[in-house]
Amino acid sequence: xxxxxxxxxxxxxxxxxxxxxxxxxxxxxxxxxxxxxxxxxxxxxxxxxxxxxxxxxxxxxxxxxxxxxxxxxxxxxxxxxxxxxxxxxxxxxxxxxxxxxxxxxxxxxxxxxxxxxxxxxxxxxxxxxxxxxxxxxxxxxxxxxxxxxxxxxxxxxxxxxxxxxxxxxxxxxxxxxxxxxxxxxxxxxxxxxxxxxxxxxxxxxxxxxxxxxxxxxxxxxxxxxxxxxxxxxxxxxxxxxxxxxxxxxxxxxxxxxxxxxxxxxxxxxxxxxxxxxxxxxxxxxxxxxxxxxxxxxxxxxxxxxxxxxxxxxxxxxxxxxxxxxxxxxxxxxxxxxxxxxxxxxxxxxxxxxxxxxxxxxxxxxxxxxxxxxxxxxxxxxxxxxxxxxxxxxxxxx
Length: 397
Hints:
- By secondary structure, the protein is of the alpha/beta class.
- It is built from 12 helices and 16 strands.
- The strands form 4 sheets. It has a 5-stranded parallel β-sheet, sandwiched between helices. Strands 10-11-16-13-14 form a 5-stranded antiparallel β-sheet, covered by helices on one side. The chain has a 3-stranded parallel β-sheet with strand order 1-2-3, with helices on one face.
- The mean pLDDT is 93.
- InterPro entries: Class_I_gatase-like.
- It comes from Victivallis vadensis.
């Protein structure tokens, strides 16, 4: 199947763990063994508690951690096959990890995400935490696809508890107040939030477990660069997996962006060819589609793909996708570490919602071509306004 013809186990060992076929098969086996243990547990629990929705808590940020292949023994997509809802722990970042991790899981299975270890700031953190950080961490997760948050950590350490529980949110009353206000605001706007996350994006980033194994550092680095570059453009973005492509499950995607996906499975290629024949556009950034899952050179034809760099990706996206139904002017720097994140959705009732949040280092001026109502506060904004740091806006245009 892999065309290696090792003949004996000794020859396989001599080839070494970095041989593409060996590396791919071993890590895929490891992921599958991990998933099958959870499948076994899920089946047994369902026999006893059939009415209870099941999930497992993944440290989903490790999916794209460059150095974690040996330790991070899972593929989130494998676990979607037998769990009812998604589950995660997205670390203590409030921007990139929650956005990428939550949207990845929601893309692989469009059911709510349970973050049952919601880190709002680092453990044993001695300093005050701005309330705006807490609010952004809570409210934005709902807009990325979370449905249930259990914040870390509720622990009274007055009687000698674990050191890593020191300084938790239980000991920060203003942060607690902000935490609950964000939840109440999200519940009040539940219909709008659900409508927003259920609006299917027309743009996707290729999620490639194959390149995650065989080209991990370059693929992970490029994926984050692409996501940061797309963040301020105003379009929603999702992930489309190799498995979804192989099944021809293209959803509403019109534009697929592949970054450093040097290796892909051969059955993924058939899906890509079908996607292109049906009018889909594929933009490749970096070294893509050169080898299959066993490291063999690819000779297939993918007529119609386009190339881009991080610096030219914005122009490509704007040329391929329909223009935004409004004009938006904000700072748009390719691969900016802490950008403005701007995404719009047209709800089924015709309303246009625009989610804006400024993850940068200073307040930014934003310009729209029309006035807008901010649904969280109920305030009306003119066509030019200031976007403060870490304050989510949900604008009805």
